Amino acid sequence: MKILFITQNDPFYVRLFFEEFFKIYDRLDEIAAVVIGATMGKKSNVQLARQMYFFYGPMNFFRVGLKYAVYKVLAKIPVFLIPRGGYSVEQLCKHYGIPVIQEGNVHSREFLTTIAGMDLDLIISVAAPVIFKEALIRVPRKGCINIHNGKLPRYRGMLPNFWQMYHDEKTMGITIHEINPKIDDGKIIVQEDVAIKPKETLDSLIRRTKKIGAYLMIKAINMIKSGNVEYRENSVSDASYFSFPTREDVREFKRRGKRIM
């Protein structure tokens, strides 16, 4: 099995997935490379900062911004000086000897040519900041899969942890599914429910489920390897799509007694 990951440069949550995955997966030699795109895709720094300001609020925005700045500095430290592995996805990869590809356009002809030469079996999206197109999906022999921290098909779209808490769900779903050119639309490979703890913050829920997701991803990979996947339909008739929360959505979230951090 030869695997390529496509992800984004997020030091807070995505890094936790890879930290756990690299620690527990016993065949890291199967990973051809980890492709890292920009955080939140094509948004400019100004657009991203504005979105985060309305999402977190002034005080938490300052705290998160300060933490992000510190992580950016720490991410420059040589890997051998960081015993626990790193403060970025790239540092973690270097710690485990996994190649990294920095790529702003995974649909470019040059990138597709490069990965076509890797003889890939599987491409895995972990918060990839882009919708996969058909040409990319066709590259690996066994297709592309995605991890989605929401129960499909009900919670398609962005920040599903937020929306599951918003709607007072007692559990949230972690779903591994096939990728097709539509958003969160492919057949479900494996899905598990995780209890949302009383008074849990959105931040702690995301952090906790990113780590759980690493175990579920390994389960899915092993199912694909063995050819023992019992696919479940991801019915569009039962689907709902949620976009990134607006300022008003966050206010209502808090009015319902929920906390971001």
Tell me the layout of helices and strands:
Layout: E1 3-8, H1 14-24, E2 31-37, H2 45-56, H3 58-74, H4 89-95, E3 100-102, H5 109-116, E4 122-126, H6 134-137, E5 144-148, E6 156-157, H7 160-166, E7 171-178, E8 188-195, H8 202-226, E9 241-242, H9 247-255
Parallel strand pairs: 1-2, 1-4, 2-3, 4-5, 6-9
Antiparallel strand pairs: 5-7, 7-8
Helix pairs in contact: 1-8, 2-3
CATH-derived architecture: 3-Layer(aba) Sandwich
Q: State which percent range the strand residues make up.
A: 15-25%
The total domain count is 1
Structural class: alpha/beta
Description:
With 261 residues, the protein is of the alpha/beta class. It has a single domain (3-255), classed as 3-Layer(aba) Sandwich (Rossmann fold), CATH 3.40.50. The chain has helices at residues 14-24, 45-56, 58-74, 89-95, 109-116, 134-137, 160-166, 202-226, 247-255; strands at 3-8, 31-37, 100-102, 122-126, 144-148, 156-157, 171-178, 188-195, 241-242. It has a 7-stranded mixed beta sheet. Strands 6-9 form a two-stranded parallel sheet. Helix 2 crosses helix 3. The N and C termini lie far apart (39 Å).
